[in-house]
Amino acid sequence: MLSRNLYASFSLVVVFMFLNIPVYAENDTGISSLRQTSKAFSSIAKLVSPSVVFIKVESVQKNIPGLPFESPFDSELFKRFFGDQFPGFPPQQQAPTERRILGQGSGFVYAIEKGLLSDKSYILTNNHVVEGAEKIRITFQDGREFDAKITGADKKSDIAVLEIKDSTHSALPLGDSSSLEVGEWVVAVGNPFGLSHTLTVGVVSAKGRTGLGINDYEDFIQTDAAINPGNSGGPLLNLDGEVVGINTAIFSRSGGYMGVGFAIPSNLAIGIARQLIDKGEVTRGYLGVVIQELTPELAESFDMKEAKGILVSQVSENSPAAKGGLKVGDLIIAYQGKPVNEIGDFRNRVALTAPGSNAKITIIRNGKQKNISVEIGNLSNEKQLAKRPAQITVELGLTVQTITADLAEQFDVESGKGVVVTNVKNGSIAAIAGVRIGTVILQVNQQDVNSAAEFKRAIEKRNEKKKVLLLISDRGMSRYLVLRW
């Protein structure tokens, strides 16, 4: 009996030891992996920090009434209780007309240029960091300081290039931001709150963020690497130590980090920086179209199996697009041989195409793929889009009329093209979809409608499907709209 108990105890000990061996090994492997990741971050810090700069900016701001320069004894509230003169208090003093503002941000060495008399280093940063600056001073990690001047700045993309007379600090290697993937590790280096050369780590949370209202040209990388005031202009890097973005903005209700930061992709920034260095300004390409996302509903209406590409909803008269043969309803699936799926990305690629050059655009028209060549225009030389009429439907809670000269003047639309909505029933399908009085309907199911009679016939032709594809124009901008009932 005793020997049997000893045997059982021994067995338990052996099992216990056996079970603990793989747990220990697994933990050891995990810790080793974490150590390697930690070393990778340390290596990046050592590699890039010597080329990251702390930017101090000095500017002048005019005095604004109500700011603390004014004497409290000159306030309206003080006068109301004590009058214009109050014995025993200092006399009123004239408030200064301007004050000096100190700002700060980050940047990094982008390129080095060797010269006969002196060498130059170009520093890449955000335009909003140096805009309006009277004096710019940059500091490297080794403590060396330089006065910098602006080589060029572009407000629309929020990119600026500075230059200093020095070439002792190496330029950071540049990466391909288009190859970034969501979930990939990234590192941000900068000077948040003036804390020089701070490194934070996170992942790519999303790509292609547009419509944020931060810049005119947006295609942001979203990251959860901590970005705070003072980080603006600093580099966002991949694990190879390559710059894949420029930290630009944060989403915050408190003014501090809340887990959502935005960086300008390096591919966009590099194209702008090169023009600023070479010409001191940015020249943007112009196509002359209004485009919209291809939603699943629109894809179904255009008999597309997948919602890939972007949809042309308007082509400006005499524009490069019109001359090249692009038409309303074309689906753009590739630009210069590369797939097109996002409006922001397409807009940026067109803008960075040199005016006068030919661009190959792949489209799908009436279910057939086609390549067309368009000579890109110069955006700065083009006029604003002319206003065009809109569209409407009758059986969906709308009343439409043929656009006469009187109606054209009343609704400020173009006569002879489309039909104008003169009434929208509250709570109707059209009202919920955003159609309003004055909207012009240009097409019904890809067919032009230029009279109320044509509109009615077009609606009745396919009403068994209980849906209709409209091309409407509202406030001069065209877009496609699917209505179901």
Largest sheet: 6 strands, antiparallel, barrel
CATH topology of the largest domain: Thrombin, subunit H
Helical segment count: 10
Query: Which radius of gyration do the C-alpha atoms yield?
Result: 31 Å
Identify the strand order in the major beta sheet. 1-2-3-6-5-4
Shape: elongated
CATH class of the largest domain: Mainly Beta
Oligomer: single chain
Number of strands: 26
The fraction of residues assigned to DSSP E strands is 25-35%
Secondary structural class: alpha+beta
Mean of all residue-level pLDDT scores = 80
Known CATH architecture of the largest domain: Beta Barrel
| Terminal-residue CA separation | 84 Å
Number of discrete domains? 3
Low-pLDDT segments, ≥5 res = 1-21, 66-71, 75-83, 383-394
* Fraction in helix: 10-25%
What are the key terms here?
single chain; 485 residues; alpha+beta; Thrombin, subunit H; Pdz3 Domain; 6-stranded antiparallel barrel; 6-stranded antiparallel β-barrel; 10 helices; disordered N terminus
Could you walk me through the main structural features you see in this protein, from its secondary elements to its overall organization?
The chain is built from ten helices and 26 strands. With 485 residues, the chain is α+β, with helices and mostly antiparallel strands. The termini are far apart.
Task: Summarize the helices and strands and which ones pair or pack.
Blueprint: H1 2-48, E1 52-62, H2 76-82, E2 98-113, E3 120-125, H3 127-130, E4 135-139, E5 145-154, E6 159-164, E7 185-190, E8 198-209, E9 220-223, E10 235-237, E11 243-250, E12 261-265, H4 266-279, E13 285-286, E14 289-293, H5 296-301, E15 310-315, H6 320-324, E16 331-335, E17 338-339, H7 343-351, E18 358-365, E19 368-375, E20 377-378, E21 398-402, H8 405-411, E22 419-424, H9 429-433, E23 440-444, E24 447-448, H10 452-461, E25 467-474, E26 477-484
Antiparallel strand pairs: 1-2, 1-4, 2-3, 3-6, 4-5, 5-6, 7-8, 7-10, 8-9, 9-12, 10-11, 11-12, 13-20, 14-15, 15-16, 16-17, 16-18, 18-19, 21-22, 22-23, 23-24, 23-25, 25-26
